[in-house]
Amino acid sequence: MKGLNDYIAQNRDRFLEELFELLKIPSVSADSRHKDDMLSAADYVKDKLLKAGADSAEVISTEGHPIVYGEKIVDKKLPTVLVYGHYDVQPPDPLELWESEPFEPVVKKTVNHPEGAIFARGSSDDKGQMYLHIKAFEAMNELGDIPCNIKFMIEGEEEVGSAHLGDFCRKFIEKLDCDVILISDTAMISMDTPSITTGLRGLSYVEVEVTGPNRDLHSGIYGGAVDNPVNVLCDMIASLKDENNKITVEGFYDKVEKVADEERELMGKAPFDLEAYKKDLNLEDVNGEKGYTSLERTSIRPSLDVNGIWGGYTGEGAKTVLPSKAYAKISMRLVPHQSSEEITDLFTRHFKKIAPNTVDVKVTPHHGGEPVVVGTDSDEYRAAHLAVVDAFGKPPIPLRSGGSIPIVALFEEVLGAKSILLGFGLDSDALHSPNEHFGLVNYFKGIETVPGFYKHYSELKKQQK
Ligand code: BES
Ligand code: MN
Ligand code: MN
User: Fold this and answer.
1) Which residue owns the Cα nearest ligand 1 atom 16?
2) Which residues partner with 72 through β-bridges?
3) Given a cut of 90, is residue 367 above it in pLDDT?
4) Which of 212, 267, 320, 392 is deepest in the core (most CB within 10 A)?
């Protein structure tokens, strides 16, 4: 786009300051103490959409956190792109592991970001990646070059399962009418090797409660004679994987798609550096399902992980107690054609079955989501590909990701539109972790790439008419 790079260069400082302002708002969706911050963040996004040139923008309330909607309709006959993103962030805990304050953004250099990265909760997931769309939109407006209609839907509940977005989409189905959905909430392999995300894993998430004796017991008086629910829970969890790291839940793999050898071969060619991966995590070695590479284990294969486990005494010092209850939160990442509901069901049955009769087991399902595959043989994929070529000077590699964005499958079901996952972060950006960051280059390259998507998409659509 003519003049785009100049416009970005001239407004660089302001583009950064505005993102910093947004990052300073602690919009933690999981924590009810931040309800007002959620509203402030939504207002901020709405305001910036209007300033960037939207015809209209509004904060629409839901039963949960509000959704920001804005649009610019150039001509009803032109194609329409709906941009989706989220302004909510994960809780910043554990706070003591942050090197700077989570809601006071600072720029620091890292190995993967030699030109500097913005450190703050939400910088990469997803405020930085969402805000770059608003700045790309501003640039296009200022340069008078908007080739299609653009709608924005920025929600505040992605990190807690998007509970109200499905109803919102059904209610405003006409307002949200579009040809394609554009999302930047995933990662690239590296800045040297751009990639486009062609798959997301689904999610099944459960909480388990194991109850032994009717009360906490003295571990001297009863220890050895009464089954300890914490020990039992550990045994049960340990049995969920066999010696080859296959998940033992009965029926778990029944519907797992067998990926063609050719696709696996192609994945093997993706420039994944296992040594750098281990070094980044300070690990001597990695481990996972036998017969698959690390990239495969996090994309085309399902996984099962304990996210938290507790029970008994965890305070300071020692307390000799045989606890009555033990708990764990367990997530399963799913691949095509596993269904979240079915897997939750299989897990529940299996977990109850393997419990010894010395304990009672309760399994409570949390939010889940279905896996997604993005085809590469479409105008929208080709447009994303061309936009990346223009901005990065290299063709992007299609690659499935291990993360989940449950709402993507729902968009297709309710709005009947496919999504393009054009992410600009890196997997090493410490999403959901202390010291989350987003590269400055990633932010500005994102702003540079997005207008190319609109341009190529509109041209490809025109050619078909
Ligand atoms: N943006 C992430 C998902 C993601 C990150 C996909 C990196 C691919 C690469 C999203 O905000 C997220 O964290 N999703 C959750 C699921 C949700 C139900 C809380 C996840 O994947 O754990
Ligand atoms: Mn996200
Ligand atoms: Mn997230």
Assistant:
1) 404
2) 150
3) no
4) 212
Tell me if 413 sits within 8 A of 121, measured CB to CB. no
User: Best mutation site among 88, 125, 424 for ligand 1, i.e. most ligand atoms within 8 A of its Cβ?
Assistant: 125
Does residue 155's CB lie within 6 angstroms of at least one atom of ligand 1? no
How far is 167 from 151, CA to CA, in rounded Å?
A: 18
Whether the predicted pLDDT of 465 surpasses 80: no
Q: Is 185 in the pocket of ligand 1 (CB under 6 A)?
A: yes
Q: Does ligand 1 come within 6 angstroms of the Cβ of 374?
A: no
Active site residue 257: no
Report the alpha-carbon distance of residue 228 to residue 235 in Å, rounded.
Answer: 11
First-last CA distance in the chain: 23
Q: Which CATH class is domain 2-200+371-464?
A: alpha beta
Specify the pLDDT at position 2.
Answer: 86
Instruction: For ligand 1, pick from 87, 155, 158, 366 the residue to mutate: most ligand atoms within 8 Å of CB.
Output: 158
Domain edges within the chain: 2-200+371-464, 202-256+302-369
Residue-by-residue DSSP string for 303-372: EEEEEEEEES--SSS---EE-SEEEEEEEEEE-TT--HHHHHHHHHHHHHHTS-TTSEEEEEE---B--E
Q: Are 59 and 156 in contact (CB under 8 A)?
A: no
Across 452-457, average pLDDT: 98
pLDDT at 333 over 90: yes
Please tell me whether the overall predicted TM-score, pTM, comes out greater than 0.85 for this model: yes
CATH class of 202-256+302-369: alpha beta
